[in-house]
Sequence to fold (652 residues):
Amino acid sequence: MTAMAVPQSLLSVRDLKVVFDGRHGPLTALDGVSLDIAPGEILGVVGESGAGKSLTGTAVIGLLDPPGRVAGGSIHLNGRRIDNLPAEAMRLVRGKEIGAIFQDPLTSLHPLLRVGDQIVETILAHLSVSRGEARTRALRLLKEVGIPAAETRIDHYPHQFSGGMRQRVVIALALCAEPKLIIADEPTTALDVSIQAQIMSLLKGLCREHGTAIMLVTHDMGVIAETADRVAVMYAGRVVEVGPVRDVTRHPSHPYTAGLMASIPSVHARHRHLNQIDGAMPRLNAIPKGCAFNPRCGSCRDRCRDERPSLGAGLHIAACHFPLRELVHG
Amino acid sequence: MAETETILEVKAASCRFDVSAPWLSRLASHEPRRVLRAVEDISFTVRRGTTFSIVGESGCGKSTLARMIVGLQRPTEGSLRFADIRRLDGSFGPPRVQMIFQDPYASLNPRWRVGDIIAEPIRELKLRDSEAAVTGRVGDLLEIVGLSRADARRFPHEFSGGQRQRISIARALATEADFLVCDEPTSALDVSVQAQILNLMVRLQAEFGLTYLFISHNLSVVRHMSDHLAIMYLGRFVEAGPADEVFNLPRHPYTRLLLDTIPDVEKPNRERKPMSGEVPSPIAPPSGCAFHPRCASAVERCSQQRPTLRDFGDVQLACDRA
Fold:
């Protein structure tokens, strides 16, 4: 758990603001998001639908579709600013320095190309090796991600693989140019539970071996708890709490995180009533003044309605005026 | 109301689908007929006022079983029988059965107002005589599920996923249903909203004495909701029994595997041994015990002879090695 912040961070997102220009004026989808990922670290980004977790990942790899645009803040990778790179330069960063794994493995593979060729193409696009060498690497990667009989499977098409096997191919594809960072957006959501566990432990093991950092975007707190080193909780386009996984899950300090944790049913014991957070996340055009969570918060006071809490800096931090427990600010 | 009253009895029900190629292509390529055994020889009873859950991964036949229970699919073999019950209003007869679907975005007609969606079963079954009484009943139902009477005039797109699932529940209750078949009712929802819906379902069960047949792949949700549960693998029950007992002492290797693979918030950074293998195709299930290719404790006999479902106290188990 190497956590502390800025100097040695691989990815550093500062005050990122993403807006969508619409007919009724701009909608702010991400509002002042700041994150750091250290080399080799797994940062979980968790939140409910519409919290902006996927959008953060999309902004980092520079795949925001218009009308979405970065309207403020900065993204640095290895000390180099990447949010204002021209499209052509960003294309070289993607794949080479940042790999991506998306939710649905079928739509992230080209259906008409053999999986081996897709990996070989990607390697050739980013590394200066011969085609033969690229194929050897592709084969080694497929073996590494646990595809049985990789020698024959390398020439199969994506539809000939099952969901879990396809996601393994996607992982091989994301790793093939040896990126320093992988953005994994809901990598196991489309898979069955027993396959989910296989894929997560594979991803975790490979990244540890290769020293790759992961930004793991998911709505599943369980997956984060088991996989990530640190977690960032998002709500209504803002980061509300960041800290080491163990601290955040056991001693959440933002009321939203606490509510979220309490609403997860447990497998260990049966309770007749689950803790629930009443209401729903606000729409982007109706984010309340002050703390975005204030209308749903049990411990909301006047200050929460007027003044937006800041996240601060430290190991375990929360954007809350009245955190549930004392935080160690660094 | 006696808690032990049987409301549904399923006896040796099977459902097979013919998925063969057209006969001419079969003739040309000398292929035999291919039959998908979605549900094979399943028996269980559901007691009134309780929740019976069916757990399994995609393709194990749990949704086919649900469709058979609501009558959307006829069993190829075996029988499903609802027992006559005495309702709270004194009437006597078979229970009214309704279904709640997984995707609240697809199961509500986008061009109908919420009021009409909920009123349709009332009008269709002539449960109220006057239009004013129907409107009153719709308002009551909306309040029961935690929405407001004024919501009747709005359209489904104006509601969030959780609110839409509340509308689905109100529509199911409109028929004065006794038995609800819930096919993954919360898997399209966020956790905090899932908690709201599960709490609502528990409250309604206590209030109206509802019986639930709950289908899910999420074991934590099943643990929260069920009195009894059955674990399904490739069309068959592998383990069934009282929920507490199955969760406290999982006997079948597949049940243990499922329990082992749930990511657990309470055990951060747990190192798990990854289990191998994938769910085989129900068109060509493995011989013997269908689970044997993935089972750590399988012996030769498991690949030859299919274990039958046997009683171990309250629990039924289909494994010779446990």
